[in-house]
Amino acid sequence: MLAVALAQLPVHSALANYFGSTQPCDGTPRNCVSVGNDRTHYVLRFDLTGNIALAVSNALFNVYDAKTRIIGRTTTTSANADVIAADSTYGFNGAAGWVDCPASAPQGGANPDHWCQQQWMRFNLTYTTYFDDTASRNSTACHELGHTLGLNHGPATTGSCMTANTPNGSTTIDAHDVAHINGYWRYQ
To answer: Phi and psi at residue 144, in whole multiples of 5°?
Structure first.
């Protein structure tokens, strides 16, 4: 029954129920979601510790590149980066990770199809339970990278890494997430 319901979902962001930008980005630790400006998604692992860098690479290549029409790439320059990733101890600010699109970043489109290049993806190492083990790091990286590709938080029943506040949650995306990403890029 769920598979039938997922197959019947609209596949473009304007009609999707948890895809595309819903809030403006203002730099605070919270949901900032942008669709990509094209199918190739360049990630600069700017200032990541080894284990977090591995988790980001795992999500980029083994989840999004492998399961969707997104082409995952890493880069060594911020000029062509869609995502600039960093980790640090940012304190107890309510977020183990968040994505922000700075006002100075190249941007276009309008909600829900707002895109942003050079968006910052931050991992807050203060919340250790989200980074203590490989599965938790992979889940957190998958979740935050999903926001950079247009995914919002999804319901806990789907088995997706886009479920909020789950340090040991899923390390992959579900069929619903795949349908929305692929539906958005269906003509590319």
So the answer is: -70, -40
